Structure formats: C-alpha cells, structure tokens
Amino acid sequence: AKNDGIRASMKYKDTPEGDKKCADCNLFVPGASATAPGGCKVFPNDTEISPNGYCIAWAKKA
Ligand code: SF4
User: Fold this and answer.
1) Is residue 40 within 6 Å of ligand 1 at its C-beta?
2) Ligand 1 centroid to 25 CA: how many Å?
3) Contact 39 CB / ligand 1 (< 6 Å)
4) What mean pLDDT comes out for the span 31-42?
5) Residue 54, domain extent
6) How far apart (Å, rounded) are the C-alpha atoms in residues 20 and 52?
C-alpha cells in the first residue's frame, strides 16, 4: 500500500536525489532484499518505499 498524502507532503519520489536515497536513510525499513520495496518510519502504512527513492525527510543512516 502507498500513503499518497504523506508522499505528497514529503515530496517523495522513486528516484535518488544525487547520492541520497532511502536505502541510506536512517528512517528506511528495509524490505525482503536489498532491492525490494520497504517501509519508512515516518510514512505510516506505506509498504512500497523504493530503496532508490528519496524525500525531504532524508537523514543519513548513522
Ligand atoms: Fe526514504 Fe524519506 Fe523515508 Fe528516508 S524519510 S526512507 S528518504 S521516504
């Protein structure tokens, strides 16, 4: 499922922003594999976050 409301407010996109992407974000919840879609701690009920996506809440993984 996708959460269209928060996707819009966070300006989510399915492509990286330079070298910033969900896979390297502290808030990403990885899926079944490194390339599978996952979740995000600030995107409730969204299970289709791309590891190669990006949004304005991006925060470098510690
Ligand atoms: Fe991706 Fe944004 Fe979630 Fe980080 S906060 S994992 S950049 S959707």
Assistant:
1) yes
2) 6
3) no
4) 98
5) 1-62
6) 8
Alpha-helical runs (H) found in 1-62: 4-9
> Whole-angstrom Cα distance, residue 17 to residue 3?
20
End-to-end CA distance of the chain: 27
User: Helix, strand or coil for residue 23?
Assistant: helix
Q: What is the pTM of this model?
A: 0.95
Q: What are the tokens at 49?
A: 């976050």
Please give the structure tokens belonging to residue 17. 């922003």
What is residue 48's predicted lDDT score, i.e. its pLDDT?
Answer: 98
Give yes or no for a contact between 13 and 53, defined as CB atoms under 8 angstroms apart: yes
The number of residues making up the chain comes to: 62
- The answer to whether the CB of 50 falls within 8 A of the CB of 25 is no
Task: State in Å: Cα 34 to ligand 1 middle.
Answer: 15
